[in-house]
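User: Hi! Is it possible to get a structure for several chains at once, not just one? Here's what I have:
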Amino acid sequence: MKIAVLGAGMVGRTIAEDLSKTHEVTSFDVNEPNLAIVQKRANVKTQQANLQLYDEYKNWFAAFEFIVIAVPGFMGFNALKSIIELGKNVADISFFPEDGLALHELAVKNNVTAIIDCGVAPGMSNLILGYENSQMQVHSFDCMVGGLPKKREKPFEYKAPFSPIDVIEEYTRPARYVENGNIITKPALSDAEFVNISPVGTLESFNTDGLRSIMFTMKHIPNMKEKTLRYPSHIQLMQALIQAGFFSEDEITVNGTNIKPIDFTNKILFNSWKLNPTDVEFTVMKIDIAGAQNNIPLNISYLLYDEYDAATQTASMSRTTGYACNAFAHLIMENKFSQKGVFPPELVGGDAHCFDFVMSYLKDRNVVYKKTTN
Amino acid sequence: MKIAVLGAGMVGRTIAEDLSKTHEVTSFDVNEPNLAIVQKRANVKTQQANLQLYDEYKNWFAAFEFIVIAVPGFMGFNALKSIIELGKNVADISFFPEDGLALHELAVKNNVTAIIDCGVAPGMSNLILGYENSQMQVHSFDCMVGGLPKKREKPFEYKAPFSPIDVIEEYTRPARYVENGNIITKPALSDAEFVNISPVGTLESFNTDGLRSIMFTMKHIPNMKEKTLRYPSHIQLMQALIQAGFFSEDEITVNGTNIKPIDFTNKILFNSWKLNPTDVEFTVMKIDIAGAQNNIPLNISYLLYDEYDAATQTASMSRTTGYACNAFAHLIMENKFSQKGVFPPELVGGDAHCFDFVMSYLKDRNVVYKKTTN
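Assistant: Yes, the chains can be modeled jointly so their relative placement is included. Here is the combined structure:
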């Protein structure tokens, strides 16, 4: 198939590289160095393009048979809408803040299959919940997830391959979870607690607003929570910075210049958090699902632990999210999932064949979700 | 006597108020609101004056019989030099960074008695060491000192009545202490350790470069150390900010504007550390002196604990430093200390009468140094 991959950042280029082994791939990005990297790594065509020019999409993408969207979140919704309007099937990993299901009717009308939020969390966590929900009666879903550098360096013990502003947004947006059937809103970073996660050791989990679509598609599950994982004390430091006003949006005057603290701090953290291409990082996700099967209590856990791949110099973040996205892409391309509309992964996981296919696709790439039943 | 007090900031105005009970005092400051406060509180004349115009000193101060310098540190040395050139006796509490003893010859020539560093530490700590040094053979001098808000508020649990930039300077300048007769230089904030100090509870002490003149005037004492006290964890937070680059002097570009991180952070901390006039704060200093008297081992401790005085709305910082300064001023004015030259307080404390006078002056104002002998 002829596939267009929109965005050639860290994840987009891994997606293109992986898909190029079996398909004819063209990467689009506004950034020429990004395109140069992807071209050096894989048999992929490239085209420089400002992907915010949505009116151009019909010119650029009409000839493609499948689309993957891997653009920054703020562009994601408009990119997806434009692709659906073009009538192209699509897998999306842009994690845009808008409600993707709002495009469902448009996708149905245009005979499009779109799977959105195709990463790890959201992404694989949704798929797993959707699958287990089809196998048992789920009472509670608890997900903890984090991407961390293997080398712990003070003061933050954290590295991010993307702008700190996106992380800070996660650290400041009120977090919602579901308890006894009610949506509870708590401050971000609340309920910090230590957890021992094999093989990492002790990490700290805290509330972030990560449930997204499952708060609404899985309304019948009374307890659902997603927490983010960091090395201990990271969150206390971030909390201190927030309290002191380092992330304020209200301008202050420094030497006669008005400046938003958030803009300054973003710059400082960018230097401090910079993940170098060969830094060893890992992704860890633990999912605990409790409930009953045929009225017999059942507790299931899934554990993902994945590290930077030195052989291919591919970050774990790129591997775990990019390969998941490609698994979903293949479900659509191979007609394994052919419903029309916009679907978050929990609505895909209800089909055991789809679930097995994705798990197997990832396992082939050494991204392993280890399931245990207690 | 006709006394001029240079500077009417938090400490300067307390000095003026205290001296005005027995002398004819005029306060000088560039800042009119500062002068208005001192005038409201005490029977003090005021004169608006830019005290950086050192050439004007002869016009302003020729008619005064004694001078107290309570200007910001960066102006202190030049102010003192100008006063000595005028031939006026002076007590100085500006804590300037330059070496005050460099003005000794000038003071001798001009028949001037000048006592410098007339605060708590430096100040009373020096006086106490000077006194005990005249009574015993001192092997070690350990001083811990801090000014803290009584109400602990996250994230910093610290308030400062002066610019954060001065505190940060203390937190970043390498710290020197004396060990086995050698001057050791360590990073600022090093050797953090918890100490229990009655009646406060557990605080954290760490190295700062606070010994100043005694490193040279008390060279025969093999071990001397001054550490600063803060509530636990304050220093870890400050260290994190330093490590992350928030105090860097190297400009970064934010939204097209070049800015020094230190300038930005100073502004943020100013808001976060602001001490309001009625905030209850305290001063705590613990001095441990070990040695021998007539070849019998002797350990002596001094403890100062002083709080904000609600009745007169006077900060402990103003009380403990301002009254100490006035005690030294009275030593000179009353001819109890009449040597000519520039003297740090350890050279005053060698005279037991001077020591007793200062202690008694402070006790009358309810600033009590409790001495214990073990």
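Chain A touches chain B at residues 154-156, 237, 239-241, 243-246, 252-255, 257, 259, 261, 263-264, 267-269, 271-272 (CB under 8 Å). The mean pLDDT of chain A is 96.

User: Great, thank you!
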